[in-house]
Specification:
This protein is mainly alpha-helical and about 400 residues long. Helices cover about 60% and strands about 5% of the residues. The chain is globular and about 55 Å long. The two termini are about 30 Å apart.
Length: about 400
Amino acid sequence: MASQQNVTSRMVPGRPDYAILTTSLVLVVIGLVFVYSASFAIALDAFDNVYFFVIRQTGAALIGLVLMFGLMRLDYHILRPWSPILMLGAVGSLTHVLVIGNDAYGARRWIPMGPLPPFQPSEFAKLAAIIYISAWLASRGGTVKSFALGFVPFIFLVGLVSGLILIEPDTGTAMIVVLATASLFFIAGASITHLGAMAGIGAVMAVLLLIGGGHRSDRITSFISPHSDPDGLGFQTLQLLIALGSGGLEGLGLGVSRQKFFYVPAAHTDGIFAIIGEETGFIGAIVIIALFAYLVYRGFRVAMNARDDFGCYLALGITCWVAFQTLINIGGITRSIPLTGIPLPFLSYGGSSIVMIMAAMGVLLSVSRYGKDRTYLERAEPRKKRFHIRSPIIPRTPQRGGVTRVTTTRA
């Protein structure tokens, strides 16, 4: 009885979800192969080095790998008190890029880093916003249904981040932030009336952005009627469809794409899925989609198995991020929705993109290590050793002090 009163318990992290880990690494390797295949002609023309883009992508992937394994080993609960600092860092960097960022392709999205590749704050803002909103929702409880304590603060927080991203402009990334965080708000038990109000605000914002003209209205025009201007607004949409259609069932062969030779704009970034479809055909495209679908499925399983609300929201937010970004990218390439110019997770060229998505996978793997079915370790305080005489006849009885008991709890 005395030993049982002194028992203490602590959770022992289990093994990570190896399915998520393996799928992520497979997608990264596939991405490196197709970044090289899709970019060597552009790299040779612009930098006289066919390996220019793949070398930079490999370096970013290695940084992402270190972050992924580091965050996987870290208890995700540590992120909760740091979430306000991460959010402030995201808002600060998004403001900073508007002041000193590099102008490229009609947008200001990158902060110069000297000899290093430029940093894209909007990619960091995705993860920071998910971590902060997850911590905020976990602390709200039932007040998330309140207009003053739930709806208004949520709209302010998400509107601040997405608004700064829209100013760059980067409509696709702003959509990802809104969709991922709104999904968390819904799952946390937000009022249906408030969700309807959010949808109404989003619709009004979309109309205002389209009325404002610029590249957003051009993308709508190219989506609705690309053949009306095949050499202008509709050029990218049509070339992406030609690349996909050229692959047929089995593809032209790895590295044999024709559209990557200056026909598909940004073939190694936004349009990489079209090059994958051209070189590996319908079969290869379905394999890529299946890998993403399996990753999302495993992510939802981690969320369902999370021990607390914070871990559940973290896993759901990261999984929704991957799911929405994949759907929007592939939907734009297949002309299911207008093009938005966002990268395909793991596969598209972009240092900030691959670093942050791999860091997010590290957080997801950390949540998987502390799920409901993890092991608890119970230790009894060791008793002081007593002097006794060992008898060669009477067998020795194990002492009760210092017993270690391992039990496993199931969901």
